[in-house]
Amino acid sequence: MSTNDEIDESIRAELTRLRDSIDNIDAAVVHMLAERFKCTQQVGYLKAEHKLPPADPAREARQIKRLRDLAESAKLDPAFAEKLLNFIIAEVIRHHETIARS
């Protein structure tokens, strides 16, 4: 197996280019999630103000189906996309419950 010292300079440059792209994408994902949570926080306050339940299982099911379809068309594993959305939904519900208690 090669060590970093043995990696050809053109391969090292390509790895750096790809990793820089990955880092940029990761930053964009974090910023998009932050924006998403700002919106869901507003939903949480609206729900709390009107005594609506923190969770909306029908909407969640529609969103999961929608995201699975988007993932499939993007050539991303729909099961992975669903797991990710379920994780996000659980966090949103937790935030909504905290808002409702305050």
UniProtKB/TrEMBL annotation:
InterPro entries: Chorismate_II_sf (IPR036263), Chorismate_mutase-related (IPR051331), CM_bact (IPR010951), CM_dom_sf (IPR036979), CM_II_prokaryot (IPR002701). Pfam families: CM_2. Keywords: Isomerase. Its EC number is 5.4.99.5. It comes from the Bacteria. Residues 9-100 form the Chorismate mutase domain. GO terms for molecular function: chorismate mutase activity. SMART domains: CM_2 (SM00830). This is Chorismate mutase. It comes from Streptomyces milbemycinicus.
